[in-house]
Known about the structure:
By secondary structure, the chain is an alpha+beta fold. The protein has helices at residues 9-31, 54-59; strands at 39-44, 63-68, 73-77, 81-88, 91-98, 102-107, 112-115. It has one domain: Roll (SH3 type barrels), CATH 2.30.30. It has two helices and seven strands; from the N terminus they run αβαββββββ. The strands form two sheets. Strands 2-1-6-7 form a four-stranded antiparallel sheet, covered by helices on one side. β3 and β4 (81-88) form a beta hairpin.
Amino acid sequence: MATKDFIGYQARVDRALRGVVREALIHAATGGMMGAHHFYIAFDTNAPGVQISDTLHNAHPHELTIVLQNQYWGLKVGENEFEVGLSFNKMPETIVIPFSAILQFSDPSQGFGFKFQPTGPSAVKSGAPAPKAETPPPAAKAEEPAPKPEPRDEAGTIVSLDKFRKK
């Protein structure tokens, strides 16, 4: 039985992984997507600070997965959020996503990805399973709804990063 975590390991890992997402986006914003790299980013559409149109929110009331690969523009990365232009059903839209709203990130070209523990009252709740963190999500278009996250164990999960390292 685990005792109370006074150090806050999960919060520290969460901040570090969100920093990985931020650095990857900075790299893409300054040099563009290189090689086969592309990002799948699932986020909570109800999280504080998310800026999407009412039309897009009505179509995706809980969660949305975007793909940053070839057809995006105006990627700007801030300290706490990023902004990007995408086309949804052939309609251009600029969206703002706080890093705290991200639920899942992956770069399928590298077999790299991870999920975040949902936090706060806007955390997505569903019984539908999502893809495992070590496998990239299925190919999706910005127009399609994202898979729902699987229920979380209250005790927490230990994730080994060894499987993501090149040997």
